[in-house]
């Protein structure tokens, strides 16, 4: 007698049973969320994106000082702040938005952050120190450091960057979109 071929309902039932068994055995892996670890890694990511002279308590040990002359072509100190999205450009408005959300998270959830509260406060301060420099001159906002076109054409560590560090500003002669 020839073996009976598997029909769609038979295959479907087998796959369904297999899927449920995976969920049964993998539930602790899939469903167990460690929010403290996620918060720690999120704040650690910001330390990895730091630009400028890094502090002694920098936890990402493979990073070194970078972009120590940012703003010098415009006669302003624009060192510090954060690189954006894994590249070496600093975009002021996304950085300001992110800093605002981090600050709000401290206000709303700081009591639940445990030991990461101090690191989150440091992350906000790292950004606000830069943003204060970028808005120090009356009527001028420095909105970007680095040339996105040349920077996005390569991928290199901030410590090794050799791309343009062009400074872009908004003022009366160079208005923004708003």
Automatic annotation (TrEMBL):
It comes from the Eukaryota. One of its GO terms (biological process) is cellulose catabolic process. Residues 35-178 form the Glycoside hydrolase family domain. The keyword Chaperone does not apply. Residues 1-31 form the signal peptide. Pfam families: Glyco_hydro_9. Keywords: Carbohydrate metabolism, Cellulose degradation, Glycosidase, Hydrolase, Polysaccharide degradation, Signal. SUPFAM superfamilies: Six-hairpin glycosidases. InterPro entries: 6-hairpin_glycosidase_sf (IPR008928), 6hp_glycosidase-like_sf (IPR012341), Glyco_hydro_9 (IPR001701). It is an enzyme of class 3 (hydrolase). It catalyses: Endohydrolysis of (1->4)-beta-D-glucosidic linkages in cellulose, lichenin and cereal beta-D-glucans. Its EC number is 3.2.1.4. GO terms for molecular function: cellulase activity. Belongs to the glycosyl hydrolase 9 (cellulase E) family. PANTHER family: ENDO-1,4-BETA-GLUCANASE. This is cellulase. It comes from Gossypium aridum (American cotton).
